[in-house]
Amino acid sequence: MGYHTIIDIFQVLSLSRSRCKLLLFCTMLCFWGYLLYSQFGDRFYAHTVTRLSQRIISDNHISRGLLHEKNDMDNAGEDLEEVAGDVQDDEVDPDLSQDRFRRRFPQAIIIGVKKGGTRALLEYLRLHPDIVATGAEPQFFNRNYNKGLEWYRHLMPKSLENQLTIEKTPAYFITKEVPARIYAMSQSTKLIVVVRHPTTRAISDYSQALEKKPTIASFETLAFKNRSAGVVDSDWIAVQIGFYAQHLVNWIQYFPFKQLLVVNGDRLITNPAAELGRVQDFLGLRKLITEKNFFFDTEKGFYCIKKTEEDYKIPHCLGKTKGRAHPDVDPEALQQLNKFYEPYNRIFYEMVGEDFGWD
Ligand code: A3P
User: Fold this and answer.
1) Which of 266, 322, 324, 329 to mutate to test the pocket of ligand 1 (most atoms within 8 A of CB)?
2) Pocket of ligand 1 (CB under 6 A)
């Protein structure tokens, strides 16, 4: 249909020629706008968020990255003893033929955050018959990438075609190179990040370090450059991990939001069944993990797992390195840290479309 035909149609609708041209111009503008948005919308959004995030980060002089002298504070991930007892063996059914039952790359990865509740989530997901998961953290895309993809695949448990393979390595979330590497393995990988109040997360991280090395300085000493002036040490890794928006920006350069699920780590503690409902939906799984699979263990102070009704008498709680007591931290320092995180949190809420109420 040519330009003149469209004008003729508008004129039949008894519009003047100049109004017809204006109407046609507006229609074309909307159409082109829609085309551009559908092509580049996600990238434009990612770009805007990147700029916003970078501005706020440079305003606060965060630049030296994760290589700070205090940052030898255990960013290694879980020790093997930490996962002992939480990990099930790779059960092999000899009746299954090698073809159907084999090691596959993960279709979903729990990418972080450290101390967000990543072990709890993985252990809960294991209850699902359509999921197989690694035990220890593979740390492949951050530390072992030079070993090659086949090395990685061999770390995965065997699975059937209809089962999802999952791994978790919380250090992925903060490692700049990782999104591109996962993208190179598979563009359709689903990503799950468990977030928690950044101040609580930092204290949890510190508690872990303190248990390993009881002589380290106090939380307040490490978290502040100048305590009386309230200047937070944004070079300390325990603080840096809490810049969720900054880290997320690296991921949305590669993956669309629909491939990313943000799990509320605080809610995972108080209502695991509800969060697991969201995760199962996101992974396209039957909703088989429900409140029936959880019971609150008063001794542990956390929810524990029961596989079936009969299993109730054999509870499966996470090991003693999950759900540690935290040291007392000066309330004023907590307040200062919360205030410090406020602008970062706001950007994060904006990006993921959810207010976590951390302020
Ligand atoms: P704390 O030990 O500081 O309480 P990760 O597995 O990512 O290292 O996270 C550890 C955190 O998971 C724990 O931090 C704890 O708060 C949280 N968590 C969530 N559900 C839990 C559960 N059922 N049992 C123990 N810890 C749980």
Assistant:
1) 322
2) 114-120, 170, 204, 207, 268-269, 302-303, 318, 322-324
> What average pLDDT score do residues 302-322 get?
82
> pLDDT tens for residues 81-130?
445 434 444 444 555 566 689 999 999 999 999 999 999 999 999 999 99
Instruction: Say whether pLDDT at 64 is over 70.
Output: no
pLDDT value of position 84:
41
| Partners of 167 in beta bridges | 109
Strand pairing partners for 168? 110
Q: Contact 106/156 with Cβ under 8 angstroms?
A: yes
Tokens 């009704």 found at: 309
Of 219, 213, 239, 246, give the one whose Cα is nearest residue 74.
213
Q: Hey, where are the domains in the chain?
A: 42-352
What contacts 24+ positions apart, CB below 8 Å, involve 41-45?
A: 42/252, 42/256, 42/257, 45/252
Secondary-structure class of domain 42-352 per CATH: alpha beta
Distance CA 70, CA 236 (A): 6
User: How far away, in angstroms, is 115 Cα from ligand 1 center?
Assistant: 6
Residue type, position 267, single letter:
R
Identify the burial level of 120 via C-beta atoms within 10 angstroms of its C-beta, where 0-12 means exposed, 13-18 middle and 19 or more buried.
buried
